[in-house]
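INTERNAL AUDIT FORM
Audit reference: QA-55
Scope: verify that the stored structure record matches its stored sequence.
Auditor: D.O.
Record contents follow.
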Amino acid sequence: MSKRRKSNREEERRYPDSPDGLVVVASNNRAFAERLTGIIRLRLKETEHVKRR
């Protein structure tokens, strides 16, 4: 049992920049949330423009 717990903890450490973490940071930091949403919107516009070609 202890080996499973250890491997699960290692998996969680491998991906510190998961989207869930970004959501938590954005909910606590308004300036970061504004920058993040701006970047996401910009990327979505770029992909829509590429799809239309």
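Auditor finding: record pair retrieved intact. The chain has a mean pLDDT of 76.
Action required: none
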